[in-house]
Amino acid sequence: MRDHGISRFLIVGSGVSLVLLLAGLSAIASPGQRGGGGRGGQAAARPMPPVPRLSDGTPNLGWADPAHKGVWRTTQHRDFAAELIERKEEGIPFQPWAKALYEYRIKTELKDDPEGFCLPTGGPSATSNRTQAPWEFLQLPEQKRIIRIFQGQAHMWQVIYLDGRPHPQEAFDLPSWMGHSVGHWDGDTLVVDTVGFNEGNWLSVGGAVQTSQLHLIERFTRVDYNNMRYEATIDDPGAYTRPFKIGWNLPWGAGQELVEVVCVENNKYPNLYPADEGQFLKP
Amino acid sequence: MRRTLIGLLTVGALALSIAPLRAHHSFTAEFDQNKLITLRGSLTKVEFTNPHGWLYLNVKDSGGKVQNWAVETGAPIQLIRQGGDKKSLAIGTEIVVDGWLARDGSRTVNGRTIKFGDGREILAGSSNTAGQ
Prior knowledge:
heterodimer; A: alpha+beta; 9-stranded mixed sheet; 4 helices; disordered N terminus; B: alpha+beta; CATH 2.40.50.140; 3 helices; 6 strands
């Protein structure tokens, strides 16, 4: 009897999970092909709400109201070569030293990934990291700034100033994990310009290199209620021979809220950290 | 056969649909993908902590000697949302864990699944995700 109950639970659980999974994949598949309406061919599907907007008409990149809460879900992108949106056939334009370091990191099984040590994943890795922890935009138009808060890693937040200020010299003199960000709206796209990164972070989970010369321009577009298009221009003359562009889609986690995750709370990765590189270096 | 299929389907589907909290470190740097083992034992200590939960089990080896093993799980919220809460993982509870052995030779595994005495099985929130 109990087995039957468990089987029923498993069947229902499987069904529900698969429906959720397929719905999620469907939503991610081709966001640009839908407007604010429902999904073609799915008569029973609830119509997708339109992209919410603030009173001044600016797209609302977060909750419309408590009944329409949610978070943006980071998707993991290890190999930025696969995410290039221009000149894809040329691959990542590494400088020789950066390519050598990238290859070393792969050969050593990415053991030195700063995320494993609970360090902040700023830059493009904030939107492509290993943990895939969700995040939110909090828009404060009266204050002319947007705050991005992240659930994972080191309790990160990023302030994006929209008051027209330039990057201060201090951002370069005291480089940081998240850098210094200013932003503006290009139509319905939030453009975020960030400089002043330190060199502790990796550009990608896959081990691509980032230097303090990184000038990052990110474009966030809520293409429909459930999907954000993310595109970034990486201009880092310290590690690459030319700027390059990457991009992917981010799904909205409807109904979800951020929870507290303090990565350093009980991180045992350093205990098991394979300091002996010899075991990885194969001839 | 049918039950196995359903079980696999459930585990696979749940793995893709539960909250997207994944391990924050390289799986292959710490654990051996080719050494999946099964541990049966009683809980001696439970840490519902981030970035990973940790379960400690007293396990009898083939010679009858009791050894304490450490099991890395996903973030505690992953366990709790599947019903792996403090009540079901109370000290002294007998569980069966499938997991991948640590490379450093210590009695540590990265948990894949946790099975309870009533047959209920949940994902342990392993960091061995596709693409590792």
